[in-house]
């Protein structure tokens, strides 16, 4: 009897060891397929204006003062839906900047929100994660209530994917896949540090083919969501200024002036990232077709390049009155506005 127990235990341990080895092997293969991007020192970077043209368009929003600081934003066609820190959701027409509807129903009844925290959307529905009730609330394009789903865990940001939701937990960075029925079936831990100071950088982005990408705050690895798991796609290397792996909390990255990536956007043939170098936020563009990189020229345009989200091949920033006072010298532009960017003529043939 003891011999049988011993054999069963040995077989079990062998299976665990084999599974662990297989998992490590698969992880290694995944990382082997990723692209390592070396971000050169600032003085050695050429101006992007030499071969990239950034077209900017301003749309003034005359009713914007009623909206406070932006918390989250999503886009469906020509309309964007913004959640602000007054717990209001506003629908804005991107063509003329008009706010065409708003919703602010705070309470505990079926069609009210307690603590709306984040937004996502597909082609027809807006999804609101209500942290106060731990429910995913569904609304149509007119912000009418269309049902809710109980969520199995809390999170700070999310996006809609086929069959469910990718949800990002901030404190110990992780991504969860939760089905449309509210079942948690996958978790991927993205970093081994604690996020004790939020960078407010974007977590999810999509390319023109609707592929979904994920990057944890402060992380220098971009993952692609494919075949039901997170696969490392791009890894940024900032050389001697990179954040050491031994760092345990993100506040140390700020205080010790390490370089780390912040916002990122994946396009059909380019990857745009912003990163903090010392106290300066810088942007670079990496051509995925040629493998070349260039920095943005700070004096290339009177309109600053500060995109907050990407939709198809356009980039957008929504800024309120207080921010425009710091961005522009012209008092006539001290109004809330939408900035729309197009990047054309990409030919990263120089480094």
How would you describe this protein?
- This protein is mainly beta and 351 residues long.
- Helices cover 13% and strands 42% of the residues.
- The protein is built from 3 helices and 25 strands.
- It has helices at residues 2-32, 250-255, 321-327, and strands spanning 35-38, 53-60, 70-76, 79-84, 89-93, 99-103, 116-121, 125-130, 135-140, 145-150, 157-161, 164-169, 174-179, 184-189, 204-206, 212-214, 221-226, 229-237, 260-266, 270-277, 280-287, 293-295, 309-311, 314-319, 337-344.
- It is globular and about 55 Å long.
- It starts with a helix and ends in a 7-residue tail after the last strand.
Q: Compute the number of helices.
A: 3
Strand order of the largest sheet: 1-18-17-16-15
Q: What is the residue-averaged pLDDT? A: 82
Strand content: 35-45%
Helical fraction = 10-25%
Q: What overall form do the CA principal axes indicate?
A: globular
- Unreliable segments of 5+ consecutive residues: 1-28, 46-50
Structural class: mainly beta
Would you report the number of β strands? 25
Largest sheet: 5 strands, mixed
- One letter per element, helices H and strands E, the order comes to HEEEEEEEEEEEEEEEEEEHEEEEEEHE
Distance from first to last alpha carbon = 70 Å
Rg (CA only): 22 Å
Short description, anyone?
This protein is mainly beta. It has 3 helices and 25 strands.
Topology overview:
Elements: H1 2-32, E1 35-38, E2 53-60, E3 70-76, E4 79-84, E5 89-93, E6 99-103, E7 116-121, E8 125-130, E9 135-140, E10 145-150, E11 157-161, E12 164-169, E13 174-179, E14 184-189, E15 204-206, E16 212-214, E17 221-226, E18 229-237, H2 250-255, E19 260-266, E20 270-277, E21 280-287, E22 293-295, E23 309-311, E24 314-319, H3 321-327, E25 337-344
Parallel strand pairs: 1-18
Antiparallel strand pairs: 2-25, 3-4, 4-5, 5-6, 7-8, 8-9, 9-10, 11-12, 12-13, 13-14, 15-16, 16-17, 17-18, 19-20, 20-21, 21-22, 23-24, 24-25
